[in-house]
Sequence to fold (111 residues):
Amino acid sequence: MAAQRYSEEFKQDAVSLVGSTGRSINSVARGLGVNTESLRQWVRAVKGPAVGAGGEAMTPAEREELKRLGSRSANWSWRRKSFARQPSGSPSDRDRLILGRMGIGGSSPGS
Fold:
């Protein structure tokens, strides 16, 4: 399949949609019927490289650290949400393990 060519005006309008509507690149790309990575490249071309706190372009190591921290944050967010969903009267796995070690019921350490 041949690559689709888009006019500069179309590309600029697509990038404007991402910036002005607050919608994600994926959402705008789907709505326009454009490849997500193509739109992502157009946005990067307009915005320039990702910039760190000092106003300088981020190094690959900084990008990797940012990605790592983002996934770590998502993990904690998931844990916090799952903890909030736990019924208040129900013991957690940790509580059952502690109670089991104390011989008060629950599961024992070896089981």
User: Anything to note?
Assistant: The chain has a mean pLDDT of 75. The chain is about 60% helix and 0% strand.
